[in-house]
Sequence to fold (453 residues):
Amino acid sequence: MKLIPTTQLTEEQVNAGMDLVTKDGLAVETMVVLTGGTFLTALALKLGASNFQIGLLAALPTLTNIFQLFAIWLAQRYNNRRVITVVCTAFARCPLIIIGLMPFVFTMGTTIHTLILLLFFHYLFGSLAGATWNSWMKDLLPVEKLGTFYAQRTRLTQILNVTLSLTVSLLIDYIKNRYPEYETAALTTLFLAGAVAGLSSLYLLIRTPEPLATVQPSNIVKQYALPLRDVNFRKLLFFNGSWIFGVNLATPFLTVYMLKTMQLSVFMVTIMAITGQLSGILFVRIWGRYSDKYSNKTVILICAPLYIAGMLTWAFTTISASVQFNIAVLALINILTGVANSGINLSLNNLGIKLAPSTHAMVYLSAKNMLLALCSAAAPLMGGMLADLLPNQQVIWTMSAILGILSIRLLRGVQESGEEKKGVVLGEMFLSFKTRLISAPVTLSKRVRNRQF
Fold:
């Protein structure tokens, strides 16, 4: 198959492309679950990682986004985003294979320094692929369907995430309890399985159609000044950066806190994560519908306070020695943050795509990713240093919540078409839920009568 961009895509090609993008999301989600999150933290702790090293691992995925300047140069030179994405994606999977094979090939096994180095190259090539992929999707996906499409894609990937996380965490806990000497090997083997899943996405990317991009070659540094001169987009960058910094200041260490301080098993930590994911799955379709009907900004203004409330609730995990009480509090936290994150992540992604002009979409979105890279990388590194210095991690959670509150004020200055006051949207949501609650017994009664006859 020749990977040549198409000048004009038919509706059939666009629909086929959207289906392939969804399948690609499932393949990548499998890789992310097996090589990140709780399992990566568990492996890092097993290898003796410090809080700073945990923060560094959390920072790598976004820190490497600063290299997206090179991806823009490649796109301008060759004007073939699909080829660049496919090649960089292939290189990004290689370090995962090495991590997975090291315990079986080298007698010394895997060290925390080797893990960090290999993951650096994994995330580096992944960020290059992500820059061209985002621009590619900007031209491929119909803007009027962005909210609905990404909501459906997110729902499917989260269902996969929940199922896979639960199954693998049970397996890891079984090995840890019965065969503890093989725990490290089992965790590194997950990287090998993740690499296989990640490589399968290459086939899907190759088949996904690419619209021909409008390239306007010029000095890259001057191009990056465009988003900063765009007053509205600059306001979005300020909000996005401050919000991501606040969130990432504490989030990477919540898993460490549950594993080390609260002494929860990998399975229980995974259950808590799944609780949040299920909450997000239930609400992401709602947020997608409202972001299309009203605006992404409105959805964020509803979800952000909900997330902040969840962060502040972490303080209640320190007031009781009761395991049952703490589990209940953790479940509440994950429900609140799961519902909120599903709306925030969906809307932030869509808002960036929506506000970026088509002629400079790659520059705008890459500038956004690079700013987020700096904020996302600085936050966990600072959080790691604070975690080593402060005896009480509650201070970090409080700081995270305060920064979140301050960042909401920055969002209010962003202008988006279709924007509606959040009170109107909340009113419609409550009315919709009330209608469903009232109609549910009637619907159930009808089903029962139909079965009787």
Q: What stands out?
A: The chain has a mean pLDDT of 83. The chain has one domain: 11-206+219-415. Residues 146-178 form the longest helix (33 residues).
